[in-house]
């Protein structure tokens, strides 16, 4: 019996194998197949664009923008709106055919590929989509490696789009993405060749995260140690979710003197660490926790919610907040107002602001403060203090617990792990995984907080910069000689590019949980274990012993 869909790109994939009837994320089978067809279009465009570049011909920026957006919108929890995905497919055919015309005019030969020639009517889309998904590659190991690379490219696209929206771009990253997709589409690459390509994807992932770091810090300043309010005020509020700082900036500007406060949710928490946003007195604080708690927290927030990137949990049928949901960029949800930018990239948030004015103030669900802002620039300012603490034994080990949070009960492991860590250890974190332990009050070591939050998932780059600096300071030859343990939680494709980036930097002995990716075949997993020491997690007690963290 043919599956209605097949998707295994996220950690929560059904039964640790793959979602075949409906995505655990809430994506229905039709949406999944439509995304498969969009990726089919992306492959066709990439093949032609790559061929043009091989002949030293320019490729328009619209092509780059389309591919980045298309990859981003297929990330887990980003877009559930079939109509918006279909519009992208239609636009993609136009781009592909225009590129083919350009190649023909220059007598540039194109390889044979279904992705270059097929184009049916809307009535044909669903049937075609069923033939071009993940399972089109019959060899399990080749499929595993190809999907590993594609998921890395999806994460890369997400980070690149954020940088681009702040005016920072790198043509070489676009070239790499399109060349890589073209190779996977038209060449019979061996497992060894695909493994090399996966590591190269990680290398370009480092470059992409460095670009985004430069975009963020040059636009908003270097993150600094900040105490963030987690309570609420008495005025109506707008809750902004996702990762895009440019959207936050525009929203804060347009809500000045409106009588409406702005709160962050989930991965937007680190926005409070940037100096440029501290001038906004109505930037009230962070509301709630990680993305997966949004159904209850969006209900109690009372005001409108703006999704700037992935992290959408489909609201229940009786949800009171769905009419207050707004999407933008690569996100989409049926029935929700989607805010688009004008030709200059400006967005008008008037409707969100007016909606907020009609709403009650947020219902307080907690109060107090959490501390963050420990990106690489801030931590390196504390380097002497940190090095001294390591040398005198006050800090025995650093535990990198970056990554994603999720719904599975097994993720309670990370809270228990953090609670059981010896008092002479420091947690380095980035991403929404921190919500498992950033409110535990774990104290400090000689004034250094025991939870150092570098920021969003892309700020895992900061943790790599910190590790490389410590390696230099301690005069070590190998980054793996540092007193650092990597115990990382993952959920979706941005975590994949972070993992590949860490591997490309030579970091070994990374522990992934709560489960290893379903898209890794047994043979590919063995390669990662044998060459990089990647492993899953066990019980908290067994892992404490394995990591050498048990007190005598």
Describe this structure in words.
By secondary structure, this protein is of the alpha/beta class. The protein is 44% helix and 10% strand. The chain has helices spanning 29-54, 61-73, 82-105, 114-117, 122-129, 140-165, 171-186, 191-220, 245-255, 294-301, 350-357, 376-381, 383-391, 412-420, 460-473, 493-504, 522-532, 540-546, and strands spanning 226-229, 237-241, 261-264, 283-286, 305-307, 325-328, 337-339, 369-372, 397-400, 425-429, 444-445, 448-449, 451-453, 484-489, 510-513. The strands form four sheets. It has a six-stranded parallel beta sheet with strand order 4-3-2-5-6-7. The chain has a five-stranded parallel beta sheet with strand order 13-10-9-14-15, with helices on one face. Strand 11 and strand 12 (448-449) form a beta hairpin. It is globular.
Annotation keywords:
single chain, 552 residues, alpha/beta, Substrate Binding Domain Of Dnak, Chain:A, Domain 2, Rossmann fold, 3 domains, six-stranded parallel β-sheet, five-stranded parallel β-sheet
Topology:
Layout: H1 29-54, H2 61-73, H3 82-105, H4 114-117, H5 122-129, H6 140-165, H7 171-186, H8 191-220, E1 226-229, E2 237-241, H9 245-255, E3 261-264, E4 283-286, H10 294-301, E5 305-307, E6 325-328, E7 337-339, H11 350-357, E8 369-372, H12 376-381, H13 383-391, E9 397-400, H14 412-420, E10 425-429, E11 444-445, E12 448-449, E13 451-453, H15 460-473, E14 484-489, H16 493-504, E15 510-513, H17 522-532, H18 540-546
Parallel strand pairs: 2-3, 2-5, 3-4, 5-6, 6-7, 9-10, 9-14, 10-13, 14-15
Antiparallel strand pairs: 1-8, 11-12
């Amino acid at each position: 019996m043919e599956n209605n869909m097949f998707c295994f790109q996220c950690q929560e994939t059904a039964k640790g194998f793959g979602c075949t009837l409906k995505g655990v994320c809430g994506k229905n089978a039709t949406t999944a197949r439509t995304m498969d067809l969009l990726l089919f279009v992306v492959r066709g465009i990439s093949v032609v664009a790559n061929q043009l570049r091989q002949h030293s011909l320019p490729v328009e920026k619209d092509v780059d923008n389309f591919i980045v957006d298309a990859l981003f919108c297929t990330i887990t929890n980003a877009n559930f709106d079939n109509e918006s995905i279909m519009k992208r497919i239609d636009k993609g055919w136009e781009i592909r055919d225009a590129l083919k015309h350009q190649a023909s005019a220059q007598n540039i030969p194109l390889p044979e590929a279904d992705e270059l020639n097929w184009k049916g009517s809307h009535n044909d889309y669903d049937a075609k989509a069923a033939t071009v998904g993940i399972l089109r590659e019959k060899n399990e190991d080749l499929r595993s490696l190809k999907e590993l690379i594609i998921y890395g490219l999806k994460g890369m696209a997400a980070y690149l789009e954020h940088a681009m929206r702040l005016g920072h771009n790198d043509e070489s990253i676009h070239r790499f993405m399109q060349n890589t997709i073209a190779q996977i589409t038209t060449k019979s690459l061996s497992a060894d060749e695909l493994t090399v390509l996966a590591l190269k994807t990680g290398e370009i992932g480092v470059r992409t995260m460095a670009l985004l770091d430069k975009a963020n810090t040059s636009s908003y300043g270097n993150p600094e140690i900040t105490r963030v309010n987690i309570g609420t005020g008495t005025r109506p509020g707008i809750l902004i979710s996702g990762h895009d700082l440019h959207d936050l900036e525009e929203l804060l500007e347009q809500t000045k003197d409106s009588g409406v406060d702005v709160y962050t949710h989930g991965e937007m928490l680190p926005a409070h660490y940037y100096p440029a946003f501290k001038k906004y007195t109505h930037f009230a604080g962070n509301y709630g926790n990680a993305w997966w708690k949004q159904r209850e927290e969006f209900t109690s927030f009372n005001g409108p919610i703006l999704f700037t990137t992935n992290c959408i949990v489909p609201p229940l049928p009786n949800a009171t907040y769905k009419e207050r949901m707004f999407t933008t960029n690569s996100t989409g949800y049926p029935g929700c107002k989607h805010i688009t930018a004008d030709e200059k990239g400006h967005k008008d948030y008037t409707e969100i602001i007016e909606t907020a004015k009609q709403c009650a103030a947020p219902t307080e669900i907690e109060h107090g403060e959490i501390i963050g802002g420990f990106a690489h620039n801030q931590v390196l300012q504390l380097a002497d203090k940190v090095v001294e603490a390591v040398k005198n034994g006050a800090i025995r080990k650093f535990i990198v617990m970056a990554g994603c949070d999720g719904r599975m009960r097994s993720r309670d492991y990370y809270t228990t792990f953090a609670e059981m860590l010896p008092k002479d250890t420091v947690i380095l974190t980035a991403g929404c995984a921190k919500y498992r332990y950033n409110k535990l009050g774990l104290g400090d070591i000689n004034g250094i907080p025991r939870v150092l939050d570098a920021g969003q998932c892309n700020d895992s780059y900061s943790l790599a910069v910190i590790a490389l600096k410590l390696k230099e300071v301690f005069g070590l030859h190998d980054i793996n000689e540092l007193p650092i343990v990597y115990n990382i939680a993952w959920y979706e494709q941005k975590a994949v590019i972070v993992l590949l980036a860490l591997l490309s930097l030579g970091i070994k002995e990374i522990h992934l949980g709560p489960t290893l990716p379903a898209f890794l075949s047994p043979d590919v997993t063995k390669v990662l274990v044998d060459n990089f020491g990647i492993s899953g997690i066990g019980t908290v007690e067994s892992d404490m012993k394995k990591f050498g963290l048990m007190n005598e």
